[in-house]
Amino acid sequence: MGKRAAAQNDETFLGVLWDLLCGRLSPLLTVGFIILLILGVWVLARFFGEVPPTRIDAKNVALTPDPPVWIKSSDISGEVFATPELGEPLFFTSENLTEQLANRFESHPWVRDVEKVQLHPPTNVTIKVEYRKPVLLGETEASILTPISTGCFRLPYKDFAEPAERRKYLRLLKVPRPTLPAVGQHWNDPYVLGAVRLANALRERYKVWNITTIGAATPRSPQTEHLPHYQITTKNGTVIVWGLPPIDPNAPNAEKLRQLAVLSTKEKIACLDAYLKANGSLDHNQLRFDVVEIEVTPVE
């Protein structure tokens, strides 16, 4: 019984190792055992060694806050990582990772600013962003609609494909198509810039005044004929001649424009609010309101 147990013990791994140490194995078996031992150590190192870095993709990124209701179709994270022009794949070991992620997400048309990037190794990222807000739909002479943000950036059209969504915004008529920028780029055309400032000023009055479009108006003064002038139109056809748009306080000629303007934007809004309060509506098809001169004149 004792001899049988000893024999079984000799056949175990420890028994073979003991025989190796004691020099009782043949040279061939010794070499084979050492090779197997080295291979075993290598396999264990591969299994339990250092885990390769995680590649960052759309599934790893959480945007905060969630995209607002006006972003209907755009998948911001998916589109950012699907754009090969933005560079090589990113890993948690990439240099300047937070800066690279911020730059890539700021390149998306719907992202106005990346406020913070938080890394949660080994797999997750949280990015705090500020989204752009739509304010106008520019309409070219060919009736092509182009969404425009409050900062005058061109936005993706696919988020405005539904007619009900398009009806929520003012339309800017006769947009100059040759100046049309790429999606996500700033629109530097003076006519579009002025219309965006006017639309921003009237955001709270779209529904109250029942206005639907902004268009170009004829300048009333030789001093301002080189500047864009505007008129707004209600759903039932009332034309409100607005004149100069709200003045950009950062413009180098801002003070000169203030001197040329008959009324400030605030005064023009107050004038129309007073008329609305007195008459119940701005929708009178036979009237034309000229808030440049504060008078009501018949339509010719």
Describe what you observe in this structure:
The protein has ten helices and 13 strands. The radius of gyration is 35 Å and the shape is elongated. The chain is about 35% helix and about 20% strand.
Please outline what is shown here.
The chain has helices at residues 2-10, 13-22, 27-48, 76-81, 97-106, 163-166, 190-201, 206-209, 254-260, 265-279; strands spanning 55-56, 61-64, 90-91, 111-120, 124-131, 134-139, 145-149, 170-172, 211-216, 230-234, 239-243, 287-290, 295-298. With 300 residues, it is an alpha/beta fold. Mean pLDDT is 81; it is low at 1-10 and 293-300.
Element layout with pairings:
Layout (H helix, E strand, L loop, with lengths): L1 H9 L2 H10 L4 H22 L6 E2 L4 E4 L11 H6 L8 E2 L5 H10 L4 E10 L3 E8 L2 E6 L5 E5 L13 H4 L3 E3 L17 H12 L4 H4 L1 E6 L13 E5 L4 E5 L10 H7 L4 H15 L7 E4 L4 E4 L2
Parallel strand pairs: 2-5, 6-8, 8-9, 11-12
Antiparallel strand pairs: 1-3, 4-5, 6-7, 9-10, 10-11, 12-13
